[in-house]
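Kindly go through one protein, given below as sequence and tokens. The question is how this chain folds according to its tokens.

***
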Amino acid sequence: MPSKRFFLPASRSEDLMKLDEIEVGPDMYNHMIKSMRMQKGDCCLLLDGRGHQGKVRIEEIDRDRESAVLKVINTEDAAGEPDTEIFIAQALAKKKKVETVIQKSTEIGARGFYPFSSRHAVVKLKADRVDKRLDRWRKIIREAARQSERGIRPDIFRPIDLDGLMDLSRDFEVVLLARAREARHTIKELSREKVVRKGRKILLIIGPEGGLAEKEIEKLISLKNCYDISLGPRILRTETAGPVLSGIILHEVGEMQ
């Protein structure tokens, strides 16, 4: 397979497995032709972000329209994806901290992200800034997914409040609430008991720098599928917890071999 890899933009809904050729616009043109200096006849690996990849060849380049036509040579299911689906609910934090979480967790294998507001969060994202922030977060995810050779492009959803997080949690087989102190479980114990196991859909909840309020914790652990888990003997920063715990989970279920 070619070494150069590109994701179709998130706005494209095509299934790569069903296409003979595809035209790409300015975003991909700038990356492929201007930045990577690819030329007519060159081949690369194209991913549709939905679990499919294909070898494609540049058939036409239109420099005036900043577009290119790609011929699909062959397609297959994309590699690089764990069977265990880890979604991270990350409390809103300072800009760089959230960016670190989504970048590193994407590289490790997280499937998606749900930012949420909490009582002790130091950041309150204003409604008129949400779309701009989401665009930046998705760009970071796309680049991290490409660099780490992911088979899909994880998504990040609009911020929700605690009630929204409670409703969301009911859609998962297992919810893991990270706690610095007084947790009743560890990932290793839950793995041994087969609560955490390969192929499950898991929501990992990470609180803000100041931690979740006690009432927020009480609400979450009242859910039947929620287990509070220990972060170990050391205190992890909010931007460290998500990537570290994602890696531990995938290791415990045998998907970091």
